[in-house]
Amino acid sequence: MEVTPGQKKRQGTVVWTDGCFDMMHYGHANALRQAKALGDYLIVGVHSDAEIRKHKGPPVMSEAERYAAVRACKWVDEVVEDAPYVTSLEWMANYEADFCVHGDDIVCDADGNDTYREVRAAGKFKTVPRTHGVSTTDLVGRMLLLTKSHQVSYNDDDKALGTTPETDVRTMSEGKTQKSPYTRVSHFLPSSRRIVQFSEGRERLEDDKAVYIHGSFDLFHTGHIAILEEAKKLGTYLIVGVLPDHIVNQKKGHSWPVMNLYERVLSVLSCSSVDEVIIGAPWEVPASLIEAQGIHVVVEGSVVDSAYLDDKDADTAFNYPKEIGIYQKLSSPSNITTSDIVTRIIANRQAFIERNKKKEAKEIAELNQSK
Fold it and tell me: What CA–CA distance (Å, rounded) separates 312 from 314?
């Protein structure tokens, strides 16, 4: 067995899982957390753009972005790029995997067949419960609707949908027209147990140097991951403040954020660079926060989402850290923003609507066959 630089040594029970991991979200992270709990070493195969287009439809994020997002998840030990969409025993043997794990939802190839049929037949397939209330399909649907129940009523969808027929997106929602339990626009219900599960990590040490950074971290992406990694280099303990929904909505306007506070918190908690999260952090970093958390450095990234640019109060957020000399502005390694991702979806809305319809049709066919 060859171990590449920076890769951990495979030992104990080796678990294989794979997927698209498009717009890596807390549902993906929870599946990886559960998969890791079934063994000692977790290998994650990530499909290429070409494989996803062939079997599912156009991905939102590029393969390079998806590889980086999975690598940043704290439960992942190894990432295999360009993994096949259909998982075989031979492929798993190449990585000394003892068994394969996937969520309990249905995954079909381009021909409508179960992508895990071979490993399932061999008794080397295990499932973990799917995280209800989120999926890439769900997030795409939210952006196409540009609404969430706690911010904009469904009466305003027509303005956001533009030329897209309202029913094309609405049929992905829960309700009388919904047929597949997997492809839908749904609503996340947070629980304290889930937050505790995602919060696992080391305790802070007395001599740790604490670095603080805050933001909305909406649709948690590689731009966020990159700046968090850079911030962590300035100390040994990274504290991330996640802004509450009403503040993000006030600063960015109509329909923001796409994900609610607790969804965004879970996404940040899944990142390996993060040690602690402040839930519902204040926009202006106050003395009380710095003193209570023992913060040594307050960081701001150089890349700002375009939706924030009209905010006249943007510069006031770091007044106190600047005053006491602990503020530092970092050059963001990535220029991608949440608005960029939304733009990708809106620009290709018809393609993504068709992708979601195709996915649901395959799931319904598979469900009917299993009855």
Answer: 6
